[in-house]
Amino acid sequence: MRDIRPYTAQLPCCRDRFGEQACQSLRKAQPALFEKRCLTDHDFSSIDCCGECRKYIERNKISSENSRSLQKAPAMCKDKHSIGFCRRFKASGMGKYSCSDAEFAVRVCRHSCGYCNDELYSMKNAPSMCSDTNKAIPIVNGTHLYWAFGREDTKKAL
Asked: Which domain of life is it from (predicted)?
């Protein structure tokens, strides 16, 4: 069992994990739906299209009052996997991932890893924009979207 260091849950840095072009296309093709998801859907606005949502909200001068529901933990804040899986994940991680890897943990074991705390979602704790050094690279494999982190061979291909 590998050593899992103590961590404090913190939302991942802000970027368009679907990819910048994909998020821009969503915004252009369905602007009303895009705005609604940016203002009401935690995963979409803070993970999937975080950067594009922020730009859209700033560009259109949308009041933070309109996104009040995002300033608290999701109402249905739960783990996507079983209790047993998330207990093991929290205790010993999974490969190179652990609860401290927010991009992964918030999707897999949100509750067990401590990502259901209202304080995390307050405006004062809004995650900063990601730097290029920790940029996720989208990889499409069949119908699933996967992310490669820090793989040198995929970075060179870009």
From this structure: Eukaryota
